[in-house]
């Protein structure tokens, strides 16, 4: 016998679980389906972000950062730390516990908000009077009927042609988070965000890391000045970065992985490593959704096609997050999930793609919101730029981390902030001020006139704003 709901959400990643909770808060009877399992076969909601992405990678980054600080920088503070060792099993175990806490937290939030959770794979069966029939394939099979459906099935890592993931030697983000011991030599194919973050983790704990990037530029989506500064820092750390390469063959064997490629000059090269992390993008999860059963329209790339309000071609069916157009970011998915739930309730959900922040959690961290200089130039927009280096910031000096700068771009005529770009300490936290300012269409003068606490890294934002008008006070 089928169970009826106002809304069924397929997928409990950041977009799905947030959409389910917001819809329930707005008075709807909501079910959420997710098939992710923990190592004991139990439910593990949270999607890629919680299980094999954002959350576990930050746990490993934090552990490896502590290790590097103890090994290389404690002496600067008068702290003697001899014979510092990294127990990889403990590091990975802590990461697993952080993931479990987040899984359990989502299940608690479902219970608190009266969202009915189904553990299994959700797929369309057919359209019925008043909605859609959804099948849940899990330990027991369930049939649900929903007036409205939100597809939030996320994405999966893209495989390198001819070199499928085995999660032993050729790793996706999943396998990269479960390496049981420090590899002596590690390669990253693609300088994607997850790859660079995982490369940072394993470099810090002793791996020799080489990045093979097909594009001729490093971090092409990032502001060029920021990308140059980041590469300079990565080079200094010992991260080997080869640009403009063309991979011809990847062979996995008992002794590791052999990679044949041509460098930017077209010269044949060979790299032998213990493991390789492939980070060349992600593909939407629509296989198994049975979209054809109800006529749900997919793009040539396998994405669910939606309009600006996240509506699909079917009445009452919506889609959010990585499975639709736009940046594959957890916080973008969350905003879309909230907006869709509110639109269902007759409200006016809001998602502004121009103020979605981006973060790369390397060391130094990289964060930005809005347009880059190269974008503004390409669009013919006249702008003013101001920047402030962390080496002139008192708090950064006290922290012992003065790499990088804050850069602000403002409209030449109106002074409205068009973009903010940060490379340096705590960039992931600092970018929030810029996102708020841009959402309220602030000018650089607004930020320059706001009192910032001293000494803080945040003062660098104020100084960058002052620099737009060429009146910095501390540089």
UniProtKB/TrEMBL annotation:
It holds the Pfam family Pyr_redox_dim. Its cofactor is FAD. One of its GO terms (molecular function) is flavin adenine dinucleotide binding. Residues 356-465 form the Pyridine nucleotide-disulphide oxidoreductase dimerisation domain. FAD binds at residues 58, 122, 153-155, 322, 328-331. It catalyses: N(6)-[(R)-dihydrolipoyl]-L-lysyl-[protein] + NAD(+) = N(6)-[(R)-lipoyl]-L-lysyl-[protein] + NADH + H(+). This is Dihydrolipoyl dehydrogenase. It comes from Comamonas flocculans.
């Amino acid at each position: 016998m089928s169970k009826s709901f106002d809304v069924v959400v397929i997928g409990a990643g950041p977009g799905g679980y947030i959409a389910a909770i917001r819809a329930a808060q707005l008075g709807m009877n909501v079910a959420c389906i997710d098939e992710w399992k923990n190592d004991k076969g139990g439910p593990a909601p949270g999607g890629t972000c919680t299980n094999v992405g954002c959350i576990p990678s930050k746990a490993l980054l934090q552990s490896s950062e502590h290790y590097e600080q103890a090994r290389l920088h404690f002496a600067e503070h008068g702290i003697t730390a001899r014979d510092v060792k990294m127990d990889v099993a403990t590091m990975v175990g802590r990461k697993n516990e952080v993931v479990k806490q987040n899984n359990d937290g989502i299940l608690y939030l479902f219970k608190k908000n009266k969202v009915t959770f189904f553990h299994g794979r959700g797929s369309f069966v057919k359209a019925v009077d008043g909605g859609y029939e959804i099948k849940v394939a899990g330990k027991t099979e369930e049939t649900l009927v929903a007036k409205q459906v939100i597809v939030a099935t996320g994405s999966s890592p893209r495989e390198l042609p001819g070199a499928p993931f085995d999660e032993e030697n050729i790793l996706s983000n999943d396998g990269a988070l479960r390496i049981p011991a420090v590899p002596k030599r590690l390669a990253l194919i693609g300088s994607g965000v997850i790859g660079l973050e995982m490369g940072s983790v394993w470099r810090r704990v002793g791996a020799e890391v080489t990045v093979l990037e097909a594009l001729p530029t490093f971090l092409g989506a990032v502001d060029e000045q920021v990308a140059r500064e980041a590469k300079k820092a990565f080079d200094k750390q010992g991260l080997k970065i080869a640009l403009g390469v063309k991979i011809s063959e990847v062979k996995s064997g008992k002794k590791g992985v052999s990679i044949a490629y041509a460098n930017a000059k077209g010269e044949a090269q060979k790299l032998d490593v213990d493991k390789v992390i492939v980070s060349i993008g992600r593909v939407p999860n629509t296989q198994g959704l049975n979209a054809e059963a109800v006529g749900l329209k997919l793009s040539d790339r396998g994405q669910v096609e939606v309009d600006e309000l996240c509506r699909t071609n079917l009445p009452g069916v919506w889609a959010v997050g990585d499975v639709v157009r736009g940046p594959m970011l957890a916080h973008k998915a969350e905003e879309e999930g909230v907006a869709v739930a509110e639109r269902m309730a007759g409200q006016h959900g809001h998602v502004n793609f121009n103020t979605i922040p981006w973060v790369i959690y390397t060391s130094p961290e990289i964060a930005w919101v809005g347009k880059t200089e190269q974008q503004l130039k390409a669009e013919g927009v006249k702008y003013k730029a101001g920047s402030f280096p962390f080496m002139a910031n008192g708090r950064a000096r006290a922290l012992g981390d003065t790499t990088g700068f804050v850069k602000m771009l403002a409209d030449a005529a109106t002074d409205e902030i068009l973009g903010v770009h940060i490379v340096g300490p705590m960039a992931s936290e600092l970018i929030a001020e810029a996102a708020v300012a841009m959402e309220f269409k602030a000018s650089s003068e607004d930020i320059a006139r706001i009192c910032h606490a001293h000494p803080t890294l945040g003062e660098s934002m104020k100084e960058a704003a002052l620099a737009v008008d060429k009146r910095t006070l501390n540089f």
